[in-house]
Every structure is written in C-alpha cells, then in structure tokens.
Give the backbone structure.
Amino acid sequence: MSSVDSTAPDPSVVSNIPTPPFVRLPDPSQLFSVRAARFGALAEGHELAPYLRFLSGLCRVQAAIQEGLPEPDAVAPETLERARQHTMPPLDRGHFTADAAFTATLDRLLVAAADLDMPAQARVALEKVTKADADERTRMIENVLAEAIPVEAIAEHIFLAAALQVHFVRLAARLDAKSLQSVGDGACPSCGGAPTATVLVNSPHTPGARYCSCSLCGTLWNYVRSKCTLCGSTRKILFQEIEGAGNIKAETCDDCHGYMKVLNQQKDDRLDPVADDVATLGLDLLVRELGFRRGGVNPFLIGY
C-alpha cells in the first residue's frame, strides 16, 4: 500500500505576489472539452480506466451539445441586487426551475450519451432517466442541487448532474465577476455550491494563488492558503500526500476533521479539479483511514 507523507503548510509563498482576482468565471466553450481530454489521458494504465474513459466521453458530450442551445433565462436585476445586499450567490440553486435552455440541455445530453461506451449499470441508469417523468426528474435535479444524491441511485443522478453542470456553467459565464463577493467559507460566490477541490494556479501574474473550484458551475474563487476550506480554521492544518505524487495533496484539518484536495497546477498545468479528483481516489481512501471526512463534492465520486 502507498504511504502517506504529512507536511505542514507554507503560507509564505504567496506573501510577495499581487492580490489575485477574487473570481475567475468559467468558459463553457473550453471547460468540458479540456476536461474530456484530461480524463482520457488519466485513463491510460489506470485501474479505473473504464470509468475514466466513460467520464471522458460524457465530458465530450457536455461540450458538443452546447452549440445552438437556447440562451438560459437571464438573472433578474432585482435578484442580482438582492444577492449583493444580503451577501448571497446570484444563482439561486435552492429555487431552480427548468427553463427552455435546461430542458434542451438535458434532452440533448440523454440522446448523445446513448452512443457512449459505458458500463452496463450506467446504461440501465441512462434508460431510467430517459424514461422518467417530469416529477421524477425534478426530484433528481433537487438531489443534485442539494448535494444529497442517494447512494442507491448514483448512476441515474450522474446524467442529471452532467446536464446541470453545463447549464450552470453557462449561467455563471454571464455574471459580472467584479460584482461577486464572498458568501462564506466553502461556498461558491456564483451559485453557493461546494468546491470539488482547490487549485494552486499557474498564473504569470499571481503564481501559486489558491482557488476553490465549484463542483456545479465551474467558478473559481480565491481562498487563503493554509486555511481550512470547510470551517475556516487556520490551526492544525496539515497536508497529506501519497509518496511520489506531490502534485496533489489532501489538506486536513484537525478542528473539523475534514479534508480538501489541493492540486498544484504550477507543477502540472494539466491538472483538472474534477478529473484529477476522480483519478486520485487512492488518496481519499488513505486519508479516510486517518479519520478525516471528505469535504470536496464531486457527483462522479459519490459513493466512494
């Protein structure tokens, strides 16, 4: 079994760089195609190769179905102002209703996904979602947005989660980055979602700045290094890593007993928060043995 190395954080590395922008909004035209390529590369020789190849195909579908989609309903100006005044995310996932854009997104994704090579369980799940009535789909959508996917129905929810990602990425891309503000530790300023992981960006202007990556809308928001993403504590923070794989670590917090992965894009700019999170399941298993609970949310890793 691989060993785990523990290291204390080094906050000094960001003390001499300019203040990074608080938010980096996603680019729908690039995010999913880049992620598909990363999943494909990670599949080579990996023990999870069939699943990683399936997710690569699903991300290719996410990228391909966007052409010609209806524009999502615009966020009302009064909603944006209310969010600003009350320090709330402008994309209200708690009151989501499917518009024409989301309905088209889901329909296209289900049709295109049928051509993918996938495990038998995923094929059965796809057929269930395709045949589900409006009420059943609404319940699954609510589960995904509440980050409460039932373990016994993981496979079905993957397809709903993939469609919701496309829709919310398109919504987030239209926001005004300069108007967004912090809405609390571990919460996306665009949609309020939890991060999948955090990344140390490979930026020429703010190298090593840390960003949380939203599991739903793909927004990146700046977050202090050496501070727990889950509870905000700055005490008893350690980094755990599998020996020989230091590009991705688990930041553990002894106060809340949670952990969040940290991907160092300065060492490897190909790292993707969603794809590399799935591919480093071994790190989750090892850190869990140390008594820490997973804090990152990834609909493709529910159940692990």
Remarks:
- The radius of gyration is 19 Å.
- Residues 10-15 have pLDDT under 50 and may be disordered.
- The first strand starts at residue 4 and ends at 7.
